[in-house]
């Protein structure tokens, strides 16, 4: 046993704990050294295995302890890194505070816009078969979301690629839900039984998907309707619609999610239509009021199928379309694109705007970029102060990786603190943001997994975007260069900061100019002569009230009220058009088909709205023949019919396949903007329909006591239609709602332009503070040579003013191009005034000059002796 532990054994034992496979290599040596005195082989093997087992257990125990030691060491290192990061953040309080403000604003705005964008893009993504569901639309010059009735039937019966086709149609808008002798507004649609095949609107435990909407006079209602009117127990009960129609409730549906483009309260079975009116799926090619969705079979390429069905109209009624001079084709819109589609209206619920989503997304991106630029600028500006720190770290052996980690930790720490502040800002501004974007977000919205994931990715992106470049540049210096503190003179330091400052004000100025352009267009639309008088016109919405002689009674009572000058009964108003797209032809001229807006009015319509007659006359109750067959048209209709002048149009006839409009022209009125300045002025044709088509009573009044007038009007309404709700509005306010999207865009741009200017200005303020400090000796020398404070301010600030000016000049061509593109979307628009660029330039330069001057004034005011001694 003397040679039990020769010199080579310590090394072998060490390797034993490092490499478990080494046990097999030394098994023979162990047997020879420790067990050569054992005579029996079995006993020798037993002892050998026992010894090896002890070695293995000891090795595992040691490795486990080493892992814990490593983890503790890693935690200590991380804690030390965070401590150093905190120390550096506190050491440069101004720098940290400026970055904190910028990053907090950026993350708050970014978080809110992330919430909004995720919500907008999530519409209709909950349907299980959504990737195979498409909305069928009719492509034409204007684009229609509705189809001719036979389109759905053709798709269902002639194309094997189609698994299912859904028919959906609006229930009459005048029909109300009746409950306990009261009428309630609910969103009601006709829907065929395929509704539940295509869409994932779950039934509650009440109802069977196979039986819902299959029989006439049956309905499915939402859970909210059940709870409101039936105390949570509606299945099998009767629901009354339109005063006299009774329906059996065969299903209760969970309330549609808010991110569904289809919003409804009641679904009426489609077979009900067959009982209520003449019906045929195979006829009615000229009746465009059916909406269809289809479900493609698995594996069908929608682009190939789109080509196959495109010419359905030409294949079935091509000759008739050629005769009419129109062209239609069938198109498919993926379900996920219906809500944000810019071309086709959504008749079943809310409609989003892809342009608005893109606009706010880019604003958030730019704001976060500017906040990151502030961080980069300030970090590189103070690099000379940190260069010695980096040099010392490298001298004592720190690696570049550890230095980068230190700087990135500072960036992450500051970003995390900024997020906490930003979260408080998000919470505080949530009501305002909801009002701005027409949403109903709550604190719960912040807790969704998608939002949290997005925020985490946002924090990581901001951390990398703001911290990586300064960390990489500063850590790349060799120790001698770092200790010399010359980073500020390199391209990465000085020149990059100039580029970034220019970019900051490029973005800021661009957003300010865009805001001015939007505001100028809104002001243009509000101040233009609309061709009618919208002030002091009160409208009663009588859509739900019965027609007939009772309306004549109401009009008589309204006209007797003091302060009321005229009362008109009509089916359309400025901002609420009549029947758009009605086909009409100049019978005697053989002209081409004209898409018109048909309106049903009475003899007082022109007086109430202040319309100006250019030729002919108004409807006159003393001329019955003209009331029966007369038409009043506008200037645009005269030109579209090819009659050249208003005088030439008098006595001409207009015909229409639908008989609306049709008759002899007795008067021509001056064009007026019935659809706002975003849209063209349609060719209008108005005939006399006293009460059969009317929806509204338009009242021209002059009274300073508007409240008292409304009370008297309401009293007259109650005398005639006491069972129906009195619903009124003012024409000027209702007409201006057409500019709602533009007003919303102006608010968004204004708010974010201010925020971006603040972020840019505080970044500039922080940067000039470092630059002014680094030029302290220069200031002392100049003051010694006789320079005034004003001259020194100009010297220190002129470089920054030049950068701001360059940013303004560079953005002008870009904003000019896209600004004109945006304005061209309006049928009537202003032009971009060059003064907008001059005013923007003046504002941004002035803000930058004030920001720079405040800081440079402190440096310029310093005692020259103290400045010369500054190191």
UniProtKB/TrEMBL annotation:
Membrane topology: Multi-pass membrane protein
Entry superkingdom: Bacteria
Record keyword Transmembrane present: yes
Residue span, MacB-like periplasmic core domain: 96-310, 508-707
InterPro entries reported in the protein's UniProt record: ABC3_permease_C (IPR003838), MacB_PCD (IPR025857), Macrolide_Exporter_MacB (IPR050250), Permease_put_prefix (IPR047699)
Pfam families per UniProt: FtsX (PF02687), MacB_PCD (PF12704)
Transmembrane regions listed in the UniProt entry: 68-86, 98-118, 360-378, 412-432, 452-478, 499-519, 748-773, 793-816, 836-857
A GO MF label: transmembrane transporter activity
Keyword vocabulary terms for this entry: Cell membrane, Membrane, Transmembrane, Transmembrane helix
GO cellular component, one term: plasma membrane
Annotated ABC3 transporter permease C-terminal domain residues: 363-479, 751-864
Compartments, as annotated in UniProt: Cell membrane
PANTHER family in the cross-refs: ABC-TYPE MACROLIDE FAMILY EXPORT SYSTEM PERMEASE COMPONENT 2, MEMBRANE COMPONENT OF TRANSPORTER-RELATED
Protein name in the entry: Putative ABC transport system permease protein
Native organism: Ekhidna lutea
